[in-house]
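User: Please fill in residues for this 162-position structure.
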C-alpha cells in the first residue's frame, strides 16, 4: 500500500481463501468485527476483516504522511446496509471485488434444445397465434402467414439452431 507519483492511493491485494481452506474468520476476530461494524451475517466477515486490516494500516501510515489521512477518512465514510449498518466505503468496494471474482456461471446442459423449444413456442404463440387461428378470419390468418414469411427460413428449421 502506498501513494503513487500522482498522489493516488494504491492498495494491492489478491483474492484467495483464508488459511485452512475455509473462508471463515476466527471467532474472537468475528466478534470484534460484529461489534465494530454491526455485521449480522457470517458471510460478510471475511471482507470486513480485510477492510479492518487496510484501515488499520492507513491509520498507522497517516501518522507519518498526511496524504494517507485523507484517504483513510474518505474510505471510512459509512455506507450502511441492512446486514452491515456501520459498513465503511472500503468494505463496499472490497465486497464488489470479491463478488466479481467468486461468481459462478450456470450453463444449461441442453442449451440448444432449450433454445429450439423456446423459439418454437415463441413462433407458435406470438407470431402465428396458434390458439387464435381456429377462430380467426381469413385476413387475420394471412397476416400471421405474412409475419412467418418475414422470419428467415433457416430460423424456422429447429434442427439448424446450434
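Assistant: Residues filled in for all 162 positions:
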Amino acid at each position: 500500500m502506498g501513494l503513487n507519483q500522482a498522489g493516488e492511493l494504491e492498495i494491492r491485494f489478491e483474492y484467495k481463501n483464508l488459511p485452512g481452506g475455509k473462508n471463515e474468520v476466527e471467532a474472537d476476530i468475528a466478534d470484534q468485527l460484529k461489534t465494530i461494524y454491526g455485521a449480522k451475517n457470517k458471510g460478510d466477515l471475511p471482507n470486513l476483516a480485510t477492510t479492518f486490516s487496510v484501515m488499520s494500516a492507513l491509520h498507522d501510515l497517516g501518522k507519518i504522511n498526511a496524504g494517507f489521512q485523507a484517504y483513510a477518512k474518505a474510505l471510512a465514510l459509512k455506507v450502511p446496509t441492512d446486514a452491515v449498518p456501520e459498513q465503511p466505503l472500503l468494505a463496499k468496494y472490497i465486497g464488489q471485488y470479491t463478488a466479481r471474482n467468486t461468481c459462478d456461471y450456470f450453463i444449461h446442459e441442453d442449451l440448444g434444445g432449450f433454445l429450439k423449444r423456446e423459439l418454437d413456442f415463441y413462433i407458435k404463440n406470438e407470431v402465428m397465434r396458434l390458439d387464435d387461428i381456429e377462430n380467426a378470419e381469413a385476413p387475420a390468418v394471412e397476416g400471421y402467414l405474412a409475419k412467418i414469411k418475414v422470419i428467415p427460413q433457416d430460423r424456422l428449421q429447429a434442427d439448424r439452431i446450434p
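For context: The chain has eight helices and two strands.
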